[in-house]
Amino acid sequence: MFHRVFLSHPRQQAGTPSGLVKPFAALALCALFAVAPDSLAQEKVLNLYSARHYQTDEQLYSNFTRQTGIRINRIEADDNALFERLKTEGRSSPADVILMVDAARLWRAESAGLFQPVQSKVLAARIPANLQGGDEGKGAQWFGFSTRARIIVYNKMSVNPADVPTYESLADPKNKGRVCTRSGSHPYMLSLIGAMVQRNGEPATEKWAQGMVANFARPPRGGDTDQIKSVAAGECGVTLANSYYYARMLRSTKADDREAMSRVGFIWPNQQSSGTHINVSGGAVARHAPHREAALMFLEYLASDQAQAYFADGNNEWPAVAGVMVKNPAIESMGKFKPENVPISAIGRNQVAAQKILDRVGYK
Ligand code: FE
Predict the structure, then answer these.
(1) What average pLDDT does range 40-64 have in this prediction?
(2) From ligand 1's centre to the CA of 294, what distance in Å?
(3) Which of 125, 263, 326, 347 has the most Cβ atoms closer than 10 angstroms to its Cβ?
(4) How far is the CA of 223 from the centre of ligand 1 (A)?
(5) Ligand 1 centroid vs 32 CA: distance in angstroms?
(6) pLDDT tens string 313-340
(7) SS3 content of the chain, % helix, strand, coil (to 5)
């Protein structure tokens, strides 16, 4: 049994009923306690603040409850709303586990002191080191549980994929008037640029950002799916999008989506060099988690083979844990690629530098 709580009902389900137990009920509880101490010795509830909500979530959460007896109270909202809510709630926040998407947002939450360090042999062993976030020396504070790639999408009629094999090539003068992106300040772009700062340094990344602005077909606007559609429509020749948006369009049965996808192709960027930029959906234990043990159990559960498959497949992503297989025909049809290995914690740390570069070159 789950409780889905939305932001319009703040803290409605997240509190605990302790203190409200009437004397006769307390007696009844004592009697029960003698019979089943384990089930009542600790509170079996977990308050989950999640920016993810997909069809496979029901299985994901019900399996955890079945395995542990811990009931999950879900509070679902987008990343920004969760961030603001956690800040407002402060020490009295009922949040135990926080799920967010993109290293940029996870890092922002970490920097705001919304997480706590986690020591877990399971997570340390299962989640690759470059997908563990947190300040160096202070231990891991957030973990990627699924990965997504930032791919290059091009119009098959107007662009030769050989002209756009890398992120760097999008800024080449030969691609003038072809390039579209969403806002440079969106977390997906800031993370990509943060990774470029890590790989290429700030001066080279600034030069790249300048080249991007010079090559725009139109000012940045819209989301990743809008970019893909603009490329299909010929408004733009080439763009950047997260892989799951492309996979979602590939799986779409709508006639206009199928028509759009027939006009575009994609490449895995930087295959001859640094590899394709990778980002994560991730989770952390909340700074003031009332149910810290349950929170840790839940994160470790998310790293299990079965949970990994549900978590990744829910959004056409890849499991973070090596060797976990997901049956997803759209993802499989996109083939294999070489991923970038820039640590997500470095991507986080470079956010500020990335935004300053964008401001300097007028990349809105
Ligand atoms: Fe997204």
Answers:
(1) 88
(2) 28
(3) 347
(4) 8
(5) 47
(6) 999 999 999 999 999 999 999 999 999 9
(7) 45, 15, 35
